[in-house]
Amino acid sequence: MFVIIMGCGRVGARVASQLARGGHEVTILDLTEKAFGRLDLDFDGTTIVGNGLDVDVLRRVGIERADAFAAATQGDNRNIMASQVARHIFNVPKVVTRIYDPLRQETFELLGLETISPTVLGADKFLHILDPDGVYTAESGELGQTARGAG
Amino acid sequence: MYVIVAGGGKVGFYLGKELVGQSHEVVIIERDAHRAAEIEGELGSIVMVGDACETTVLRAAGAERADLVAAVTGDDEDNLVICQVAKTRFHSDRTIARINNPKNAEIFQRLGIDDTVSATDVVLSMIEQEIPSDHLVPLLRLRHTDVEVVEAIIQDRSAIAGRRLRDIALPSPSTIAVIIRDGTAIFPQPDTAVVSGDEVVAFTTSQNEAALREVLLGD
Q1: What are phi and psi of A113, to 5 degrees?
Q2: Could you tell me the domains of chain B?
Q3: Do the Cβ atoms of B80 and A81 come within 8 Å?
Q4: Is A79 among the domain residues?
Q5: Could you read off the pLDDT of B177-215 as tens digits, one per residue?
Q6: Which residues contact A130 (CB under 8 A, 6 or more apart)?
Q7: What is the ipTM of this complex?
Q8: CB pairs below 8 Å between A and B: how many?
Q9: pTM of this prediction?
């Protein structure tokens, strides 16, 4: 499959490198050339310096024929915007978005994005190790209720 | 009216100031505490320090009872998220987002934002209106529709120069609304003839724009 990844931080670089090694066609975007230093030395995908929030840039890197899009920049809002453009404007079949803020994650799950929150995953892991027998709900109190009500 | 202004930069500051002057209830949400204190010094205690992208901050600002949320930070993506959170979580009646990239106007609309404002677009359309070209000048697009209002200046060589409207086959749907001749607006009838130099203001759809240009300006 052809995958576009926005953001060549540690996670983006790792996912891109692994997918390329797995034989997939990978294009990775970042605002700085330096970021691509995190990729595998033998990374054989395409690296593009550009802003993934700009639809012209997305078109240029081939979003119209992409099978998947992953947004892994440091900015929740940048990830959210680019992912919605990929999903709802260019109809990319598989889109995954990193959102650090759990409340924003709830909102944009409601709006149809598939999301990963390192905050929630990390906290759950901590809880599981600290208190293996405890039962903890993933939802935040007040806004969890709003989310259930709206959903 | 209760208005939440997200972002206390220059746009947010003056927007807040004008709204307060018009006796609206306003809160400006500004991330930077130092900047927030500056605004408070000038406008009084209508400032809340916080990141308007945060759900809890919008809730504390009273997003649930806001008549309007205006997201006017300098970043398009932040303004999008602020408006979407306000709509989804707090069912805000109306959201307006400031955008820098004019191409985001259509995207934001498709993602549910009621209105966008682009300074880039405003300046651009002013420049375009200055150009006496054989182009259709886009004047505006009607909100929530595909309808565009465009203007063209009829040239000497235009095939329709001298013809009456009833004899001009416009692409459907489109219509000539007003003809400006020597500074006077004419609301045309089927018998009104178009002459060289006329500024023709027409309503059309984006699909028909190219065909309309061909009819109005083609030779």
Answers
A1: -90, 150
A2: 2-117 (3.40.50.720), 131-217 (3.30.70.1450)
A3: yes
A4: yes
A5: 999 998 899 999 999 999 988 999 999 998 888 888 888
A6: none
A7: 0.85
A8: 59
A9: 0.75
